[in-house]
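Sample entry (71 residues):
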Amino acid sequence: INMPKLNGIELIKGLVKDKRIAPSSILIISGDVKSQYIEIIGSIGVKNFLIKPFDREGFLKKIQVMLDFEE
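Predicted structure, serialized as tokens:
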């Protein structure tokens, strides 16, 4: 969400405008878990979040869920 020189929410909005990129294929990794950000991103259609810090197993599980959804 917070990135130098670029607003993460605006980046996500730009990505989902590209019809080749499904919102379900976007994974947000952030330490900022403010509900306002989660609501905004959810309204765009992005539902995949990982909150920092996270462990390897949590990351791999999230990726597997995302891949299973795409099938």
